[in-house]
Amino acid sequence: MQSPSQLSALNSQALGVELEALRDRLRPGQQRLADWTGGPLAVSAVPGSGKSTGMAIATAILLGRRYQNALRDRTLPSRQIFLVTFTRSAAANLRAKIRELLKELGLPTTGFSVYTLHGLALNIASRHPDLSELDLTRLTLITPERGNRLIKTAVEQWSALHPDLYRQLLEGQQVDAEETERLRRRSVLGTEILPNLANTAIHEAKSSGLSPDDVRAIAQSADFSPSYITEDGLNLLPNNIALQVAAGLYEQYETLLHQRSFLDYDDMILAALRVLQNDEARQSWQQQVYAVFEDEAQDSSPLQTRLLELLAADSHTGQPNLVRVGDPNQAINSTFTPADPLFFREFCAQCQRQGRLAEMDQAGRSTQPIIDAANFLVQWVNNAPDRPLAASPLPFRLQAIRPVPPGDPQTDSNPPPEGEGVEIRFPPDIYRSVDLIAQRVAELFAREPEARAAVLVRENRMGRFVATVLRNPTEYKLGADLGALGIAVYEVGERDRHSHVPGEILTLLQFCDRPHSPDNLKAALRVLADRQLIPPQDLDALSSQPEDFLYPGPLETPQPDPVVQARRYCAGLLRARVELPQFQLIPFLALTLNYDQTELATADKLAARIAQQTASEPSLQFTLEVLSEIVQSERFEPVETEDIDTRYVRPKQLTIITMHKAKGLDWDFVFLPFLQQQTIPGKAWVPPAQQFLGEFDLAEVARAQIRAQVHQSPLPDIHTAWQQAQQLKIAEEYRLLYVAMTRARRLLWMAAERQAPFSWANPSNLQAQQPTPVLNALMQALGRS
Ligand SMILES: Nc1ncnc2c1ncn2[C@@H]1O[C@H](COP(=O)(O)OP(=O)(O)OP(=O)(O)O)[C@@H](O)[C@H]1O
């Protein structure tokens, strides 16, 4: 903090008046934050209730009060408020807000630090390299690309080291598979099942503080039935197979990580925890901390929470000075990260018992009909009669959103609705649905050019479809041409896709270099299928015997049409490799991949850079080396700045964005097309190529079993674990819909098309589909039929 002379310039009384005025600007739940004086506090907040705003104002008030005390006591407070949030952009926003408030109060902009969780961990770990064993001059943070390669190597090494377990997996449920089938299974195991298992189980275990030995101990301790063959000749795998394999893969992964001097994100947290286990270091950190405020607390893993609890613990009482703010109903990361909303809910329940739970349930964002629809969703999903596992936790915390009272400081709070506020449509198909959106958007912007609007979709491929149709109004016979009306169509996924260009080109070049490698062939086919250039099909069947696929003999059964299409593409690539000069290869691949204008520009830039770097030795081999280096050195995450967020909410722009990315943002008009039952809640299914193991996904089984251990519940057998995984997915899909619905301020437009694609890899292949069941229920509740 600052010097006593600076302090004396402040007038304590005047400051007190200003702080009171600032407190009056807060809603009741936010005031509980500002009134915090010590100990744990849980704040369970609804969407739009002002979590970040509340946290910023509360921090400024707390700092202000400490200055008042400092003026009175003539002692300078040295401890800081640590604020921890999830993303770098959220941290930047929060820091800016607090600084601005402190300046308004005439206070120095110090006394607090804003971190992301990993930033904080890195800070702690790197200040004590001896304790954390984190030597940043030697270690590098692993990139996703390198991580994938490491997992692949771990899988290969594990398969060679554990022939018995590998054989057991290969045999699956049916021991006597033919040679072709065994080859196909090898391909699926090596490229899908085991890498998925490794990725999921390692992350889940590591962020729960479990080592490979711990995972092995869980596998061995369980009273699990061994593998046996049924009377029908079915081989039933032992219930601990997923954990046994996961423990081995995890061990291999850790060895490789250390050998190559890499560290992953979990290592940073573990390193910081090692520091805080040392009494002296821990006390020294604790003495710097006045309080820890955590935002988005529903997204923290157990290890991250442990770090914050230790840091926030009062060195005398051991009580954590920890304020955790979150919305359990907006937990949308639990199916692909170890974050588990249950932990935060448990924290809320614990705090409630001690009278230390604040509810921020008033929100000014949306118009009343939208609030009603969101509240209806929460009630309906929790009471849905078809929850397969009645004992599993409820998907939502029963917390209703309430509008703010009159006189709330937010300007334009709970605005009047546009039309009825909630519009529900059942268009005949997805093309007609986009047409309806185009017409409604044109009409809305004609009246209100300054408004903000967005289409929120479940996956990027849907967003791409919407953008393509909107940008070609004549071809798709749309009733409105947004471009001609000066309305920008901004597809967010498009920007992210450009970072895929080097990776895709590398994959195709690796195939050109060694086309007979099943892995290279499969990876190239996956790129072609993802870009919808070849029909979706069983890629393992094609890639397990590359020669048969690439050069079918005249006496063999003719290949089916989708296979022929895939083969033609591959043959074209191989011909290009022989016939084209080296420098034309990348532009050719870019055209083959049907890149759009911006992607082509990225590919051209890439080609120019590679040509320059390989000028002395223009061979394919050297090109591959240079390109691999470019791909591997990519940044882990693009640095998201405030600027990016504001690009998503520009006036007179229709933003097309995934529901996940839309979290934290809002628009006046929000369109949610493609609400089919198949997607929301959807059904976790096992791809046919993986069914030789049984009707379950090995990675999800391992995750559910590790979760059970962490929550100290009985370990589920394979089938119960798989059911639990499905339950988790259903709950999360509905929470995602809740996040999407609560982004809307004045109009929430939802549609379930009667004809929609079975797979968005091929949007033109329409079939009859059911709407998500909650939509029908909502129609009834609204008295519309
Ligand atoms: N006390 C307040 N006074 C004035 N405006 C407020 C107040 N609290 C919140 N707001 C306004 O409400 C809106 C929502 O706030 P914020 O983005 O902090 O909500 P949130 O709870 O983080 O939302 P979500 O969880 O849905 O992302 C913002 O525009 C913010 O300025």
From TrEMBL:
GO molecular-function terms, A-Z: 3'-5' DNA helicase activity; ATP binding; DNA binding; hydrolase activity
Keyword Methyltransferase: no
Gene Ontology annotations of biological process type: recombinational repair
Keywords per UniProt: ATP-binding, DNA-binding, Helicase, Hydrolase, Isomerase, Nucleotide-binding
Name of the protein in its database record: DNA 3'-5' helicase
GO CC terms of this entry: cytosol; DNA helicase complex
Chain spans, region Disordered: 402-424
Domain UvrD-like helicase C-terminal: 391-664
Domain UvrD-like helicase ATP-binding: start-end pairs: 24-367
UniProt-listed Enzyme Commission number(s): 5.6.2.4
Binding site for ATP: 45-52
Compositional bias per record (Pro residues), positions renumbered to this chain: 403-418
SUPFAM superfamilies: P-loop containing nucleoside triphosphate hydrolases
Domain of life of the source: Bacteria
Catalytic activity: Couples ATP hydrolysis with the unwinding of duplex DNA by translocating in the 3'-5' direction; ATP + H2O = ADP + phosphate + H(+)
Keyword Hydrolase tagged: yes
